[in-house]
Specification:
Elements: H1 6-28, E1 34-36, E2 42-44, H2 45-58, E3 65-67, H3 68-72, E4 82-90, H4 92-97, E5 103-110, E6 113-120, E7 126-131, E8 134-141, E9 144-151, E10 160-163, H5 171-178, E11 183-186, H6 191-197, E12 203-206, E13 210-211, H7 212-224, E14 228-231, E15 247-248, E16 251-254, H8 257-271
Parallel strand pairs: 3-4, 10-11
Antiparallel strand pairs: 1-2, 4-5, 5-6, 6-7, 7-8, 8-9, 12-16, 13-15, 14-16
Length: 272
């Protein structure tokens, strides 16, 4: 097993995300050619180019890499207990819409749990990271993550809920009423996890399918900030589900375990 220190791996992931973001922005500034994958989801040249850059950076760790575009091409390495999970361009639909709400996601998974994650929004330069030392946010300036400050989840008397711009669900309105949600914020990609980690929202229910590379980095950031991510039976969301094509079950991310528990129970009731 590779025993590279966790802090060094966080720094490596930050550098890889910044390099990938530059590649993505190069494509973003010119006409975007879109191809449809076998599963119906869109992909652009930026996805594959960014993943290649990330893998080139991460290979120095000696750890295997589970990358979205590699899996789509049939390349799935033997993962073991410690490996990287990469979504080089999370929110491709947002990328195509040119609304800026897409991210680079890099996570470290150990024994089925995401223990470190980096989420970078190339357009805004916002970067979020979380590991055993806690969670922080900053801004990428001249290729460096600057203005770093610690972040933590927060509680409000009435929670704010965060949802997806591209993947809504009819049950969401009922959930908001039952949990007495103050307001909802619609945002794309793994930025939803980051809004919870920063205290801007408290609840993110997911009623539609995701894959492990969509969620691992965001989950790591949120959990490092004090939040939790659980499936609808209340169990922590696990990784390495190769037998399920790395698909996640429905889940709820929340600022606290108690809020996650009530959210998961209500989601189960609505879906029954």
């Amino acid at each position: 097993m590779n025993d590279t220190p966790a802090l060094a791996l966080t720094d490596l992931a930050v550098a890889a995300a910044i390099a990938a973001a530059q590649v993505i922005l190069d494509v973003y500034q010119r006409p975007i050619h879109v191809v449809t994958k076998d599963d119906g989801s869109p992909v652009t040249e930026a996805d594959a180019a960014a993943e290649a850059v990330i893998i080139a950076h991460l290979k120095t760790s000696g750890l295997p890499v589970l990358g979205e575009e590699s899996v789509a091409a049939g390349i799935i390495p033997a993962l073991g207990d410690r490996y990287w999970v990469v979504d080089p361009l999370d929110g491709t639909k947002e990328f195509i819409k040119r609304n800026g709400e897409f991210t680079v996601n890099i996570a470290l998974v150990e024994h089925g749990c995401p223990t470190m994650g980096v989420v970078l929004a190339p357009v805004s330069g916002e970067i979020f990271a979380g590991d055993a030392g806690g969670a922080w946010t900053g801004r990428v300036v001249d290729g460096q993550a600057t203005e770093r400050r610690a972040i933590h989840t927060s509680l409000l008397p009435r929670p704010r809920i965060v949802a997806s711009r591209s993947h809504g669900h009819a049950a969401l309105e009922q959930l908001c009423r039952t949990l007495d949600v103050e307001s909802d914020v619609s945002v794309g990609s793994s930025l939803k996890f980051c809004l919870l980690a920063r205290g801007d929202a408290q609840l993110y229910p997911r009623f539609t399918p995701t894959c492990e590379w969509d969620t691992a980095a965001g989950q790591a950031v949120l959990e490092a900030a004090g939040g939790v991510v659980v499936t609808l039976d209340g169990a922590p969301m696990r990784y390495g589900k190769g037998e399920l094509a790395f698909l996640n079950p429905y889940f709820v991310a929340a600022a606290t375990p108690a809020l996650a528990e009530s959210g998961a129970a209500e989601m189960q009731r609505l879906l029954a």
